[in-house]
Amino acid sequence: MQKGKNMKLEDAGVINTRTLNALKKKNIFTVNDLACYFPRKYLDYRRILPLSEAVEKDCAICGYLETYEKKEVNGKTVIGADVIEESSGEVVHVKWYGQSWQFNDVKKFSRQEVVICGKVKYHVVYGYNVTNPTSYHLKSNFKGKIIPIYTKIKNISDDMLKKSIDKCIELITEPLPDVVFNITKLMDYKTAVWTLHHPYSDEEISVQEILEPAEHRLIFNQVLYFTLALKLNNSKNVFDSKETFRVASVQKSQDFLHMLPYKLTYDQENACNQILKQMKAGQKVNMLVQGDVGCGKTTIAFLAMILMAENGYQSVLMAPTTVLAKQHYEELCSYGDRLGFKTVLLSSDLKGSEKKKVENDISEGNYQFIVGTHSVFSKSTSYKKLGLVITDEEHRFGVKQREALQQKAQTGVHIISMSATPIPRTLADILYGEEKQLVTIKTLPNGRKPVQTAVNRSDEKIFDFVAKQLNQGRQAYIVCPAIEENEAVETVKMESVEETEIKYRERFEPYGVKVGVVTGKQDKTEAEKTITAFKENKIQILVSTTVIEVGVNVPNATVIVINNAERFGLAQLHQLRGRVGRGNYSSYCILKSDDRYNERLVTMERTTDGFEIAKEDLKQRGLGDLIGTAQSGNNRYMDLVIAMPNLYNCIKKYAVWMINENMYEGIIQLYKKEEGSVNECE
Question: I need a labelling partner for 105 at 20 to 30 A (CA). Which of 123, 220, 225, 326 fits?
Answer without folding.
Answer: 123
